Amino acid sequence: RRVHGGVDRHSMAKQILVLGGAGALGRSLISKFTKASWTAINVDIGANSDASQNILINDNVSAKDLVAALQPRLGQPGGFRAIVNAAGGWVGGKVGDADFFDGYERMWKQNVQSSVIAAHLASRLLTARGLLVLTGAFSATLPTPDMIAYGITKAAVHQLARSLATDGLSQPARVVALLPHVIDTPANRQGMPGADFSNWTPPEHIAAKVFQWADGSTPEGTFVDVVTKQGATSFTKVELYSS
Fold it and tell me: Catalytic positions, please?
């Protein structure tokens, strides 16, 4: 059954909300969960035909207005076992570039604002001990002078995850920030055609791990380094901050 517009309240047992469910990572997540008989809801500017339900949004409105429009369409509190922010973007460039602020504003909306919206929705809609997954970046744990807008916005996602994991949500929850190196997407292949794709992480590998967590297994930690070598992917806890 496919529903466009609002949550199907007859199917509340196993639900996941994916922000950015029409992108490469989001599509893998939607596919993995629907094949396991979960209700997988896509929130994005574009539809995903594999999703159980699509809620299409206008990303040109404020975060406040976007959330106000979303919440009445997502059902009652405690309806989701997992919420994942698979939205995001990348841009290169230095802080002194003439077009720096164009890229910065885009990165803020795609990386930070999407994560904050996911966190806000999680605080209201997750079940107790539910799962919230944000997409950070391993590169943002290091200096990023040649892609500074990307680096500072992904670092902000890491800080958000750290705060949420320390009683930052309104109910007990499991919070994970993924730290992938390079996800193997069509856009990344187009941008780096000469790279060794065997060391890039297939989005299906991430989707499989998120499914394990959502289905009850314990995440490796709040910050999880995602490394692929010769097609094999590992997920390892890392400590980004001293206690």
Answer: 150
